[in-house]
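Backbone-to-sequence.
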């Protein structure tokens, strides 16, 4: 293992747990996180110290196998060019594109060059997830009324577990990913301990009152049950926890609430009807759209996200009908390939995609990182405490 990578890994993990507490907004620059800076430095260090390996890796790629992937990238560039020609291209797309390219390349090189042992990647994934859960439980017990966050532009949550993510939906899907991976961990002679931690995860998930997270968990559970039928018991346990979870009042803990659904539907309608004729083909440009550009001035909803809540709509709005068709085909292709090697990884991806039908989950920085982290940190050997 590379010593500098271990240092970066530890710093990044601590910052990741802090969530939105490490968010920085300067006004003249898109909001970013301290972990963005650390991950960029980490990637830069890897490229400098392993440039020969990186160059050799690029030369070994058979690009003829990735024609559709290259076609999609070209289509994205075309979308940006059209937006630029029509005077609709902003500057923020550069930052967001670089952010996710940096995330992807970093984790790819860490995995490919084996800069950190799999066991450390996996336990870092678990410990970070449990610390995020712990911050959420601490917040729920000692500070359940988080409505004051609306002053800062966040949704006003009351008696819902939001943790350092400041959002029950995003901490919810992180807990779903934690559950999926931890439930498949083989711990010799420590089944009771494992079940205890799984139960605590279910408690945290129940207290989010996040219906999209519940649905993602249900999809994951149905798929996990094919690997182990006993997983259905977790679904029953979650249902019991939801029923008996405190519901002191307010819209947030009402599972049949319609306000958030109406807001999402209204946003979806506005983004589609605001498209220009040519944008139905090429889109607005990836990461180029901004909700405030097509919402009425009198429309208000506490929301830090600039992109659409629905993943399908997001891709359509960004790259048009052609881009949506390419993404759909590529997703199917790669999920089928991955399923042969990593069934749990596919379940994790499908859980996030389900969640992304109602939230901007795929491109939410913490969810994107945590999902990628889970995919590169696979350990087959049995663990011993």
């Amino acid at each position: 293992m590379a010593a500098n990578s271990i240092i970066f890994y530890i710093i990044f993990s601590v910052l990741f747990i802090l969530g939105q507490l490490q968010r920085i907004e300067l006004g003249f620059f898109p909001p970013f996180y301290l972990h963005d800076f650390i991950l960029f430095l980490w990637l830069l260090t890897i490229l400098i110290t392993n440039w020969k390996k990186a160059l050799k890796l690029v030369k070994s790629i058979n690009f003829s196998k990735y024609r559709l992937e290259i076609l999609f990238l070209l289509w994205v560039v075309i979308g940006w060019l059209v937006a630029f020609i029509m005077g609709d291209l902003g500057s923020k797309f550069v930052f967001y594109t670089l952010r996710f390219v940096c995330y992807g390349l970093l984790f790819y090189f860490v995995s490919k060059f084996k800069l950190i042992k799999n066991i450390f990647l996996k336990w870092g994934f678990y410990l970070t997830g449990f610390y995020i859960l712990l911050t959420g439980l601490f917040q729920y017990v000692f500070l359940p009324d988080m409505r004051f966050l609306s002053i800062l532009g966040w949704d006003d949550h009351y008696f819902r577990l939001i943790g350092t993510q400041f959002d029950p939906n995003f901490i919810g899907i992180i807990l779903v990913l934690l559950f999926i991976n931890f439930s498949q961990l083989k711990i010799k002679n420590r089944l009771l301990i494992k079940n205890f931690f799984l139960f605590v995860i279910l408690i945290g998930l129940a207290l989010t009152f996040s219906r999209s997270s519940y649905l993602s968990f249900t999809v994951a559970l149905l798929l996990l049950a094919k690997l182990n039928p006993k997983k259905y018991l977790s679904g029953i346990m979650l249902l019991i926890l939801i029923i008996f979870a405190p519901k002191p009042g307010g819209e947030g803990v009402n599972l049949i609430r319609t306000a958030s659904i109406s807001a999402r539907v209204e946003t979806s309608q506005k983004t589609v009807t605001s498209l220009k004729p040519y944008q139905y083909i090429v889109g607005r440009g990836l990461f180029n759209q901004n909700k405030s550009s097509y919402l009425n001035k009198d429309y208000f909803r506490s929301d830090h996200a600039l992109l659409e809540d629905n993943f399908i709509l997001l891709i359509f709005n960004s790259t048009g009908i052609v881009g949506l068709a390419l993404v759909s085909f590529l997703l199917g292709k790669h999920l089928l390939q991955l399923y042969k090697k990593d069934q749990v990884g596919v379940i994790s991806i499908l859980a996030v995609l389900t969640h992304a039908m109602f939230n901007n989950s795929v491109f939410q920085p913490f969810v994107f990182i945590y999902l990628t982290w889970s995919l590169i940190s696979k350990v087959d050997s049995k663990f011993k405490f």
